[in-house]
Amino acid sequence: MKVIQPKLLKHQSGKYFDAFFSKKQTNIISKIFFRIMRRYIYEEKNNQSYDFDYLICGVNPIYNSLLLLNILKKATYNISVGIYINEIMQDYYPYDVILKEMNFNIDQTLEEIYKIAKEKNINIINLNDNILFPYECKKEDGFFLMRLFVPNRSMKNSANQYVEYNNKLKNELQKKYNKIINQLSKKIKWNISNITNDTLPILFTRNLYLTSIPQGWLEIKNEKLECDLREKLILNHDFVEHSFGSAKEINLGLEPRLIKESIEKDFFNLVNLKD
C-alpha cells in the first residue's frame, strides 16, 4: 500500500482555511489579510490535515462497499475518497438478517469496485489504523471538518451475545473488504509524536457518510419506538441525513421481516444517493 503524507493546515487551500476558522470574509482584501495572518500566526497552522471529496466513516463493510461503489459509478474525474474504519468499535447491525433473508453478495460488489476504481484511477485513501479516533465533527461553509485524537484508553465496548454474533459475521465480510481496499488504496502516514490536544489532525470533506454509530464524537439523542413486533432505537444527531445502518437506527426486536423492510429502505436511499 502506497504511503502519503498529510498536509499542514497552513498549506491547505483558502476554502478549507475559511471553514476551519468558521469565519467568512466578504471583502476580498480582508479575506486575503486574514488568510495570511492565520497561516503564520495561529497555533493551528501546523496541525496535520487531509482533504477529500467524499469520506465514508464507519465499520459496516456492507454499506461501506455499497457507498463506495455508488460514488465510483458517478465519478467523472479523479476524485478523492477517504474510508475511515476503526475495527475495535462495536457495530449494532443485523448482519444475520441481510445475509440470510436478502442473500447479499459482497464478493460481486467488491469485484465491481476493483474494476471501476482501476478504470477511473480513483484516489482511495485508507484511514484504518486503529490509532486515531474521531474527536468531533462539524459542518462549516459547506465542508465537514472532523478532528482526530489518540485516546489514552481502550475504546472497545462490551456487547451482548446477539451483537457479538453479528460482529463475528461482520468480521468475515470485513476481511474480504479489506483485501480489495488494501490493493486499491493509499495510507496517510500521520506523525503521531507531534499530536497533542492542541494539534489534533483535521479531515476536510465535501461529502460525509456514516455507516455505524458515531460513538463519543457526536451528540446523540435516542428515541425508543415500541410496537407489536419490534423495538427500534432511533438515533437523532446532526448528520442523521447522511447516515445508514446503525448510525441511524438500531433494531432491537427479533422480527426478521420488519428488520428486512428497514434494510430495504436503507438500500433504496443509498442507490438514490445525492451529493
Structural class: alpha/beta
Q: How much helix, percentage-wise, in residues?
A: 25-40%
Query: Would you list the SSEs in sequence order as H and E?
Result: EEHHEHEHHEEEHEEEEEH
Count of helices?
Answer: 7
Unreliable stretches covering 5 or more consecutive residues: none
> How far apart are the first and last residues' alpha carbons, in Å?
28 Å
Q: Based on the structure given, which CATH architecture is correct? A: 3-Layer(bba) Sandwich
CATH classification class: Alpha Beta
Q: What is the alpha-carbon Rg in Å?
A: 20 Å
What is the global morphology? globular
**Major sheet details:** 9 strands, mixed
In the CATH scheme, what's the topology name? Answer: FAD/NAD(P)-binding domain
The averaged pLDDT comes out at 81
What fraction of the residues are assigned to beta strands by DSSP?
Answer: 15-25%
- Say how many strands there are: 12
Count of domains: 1
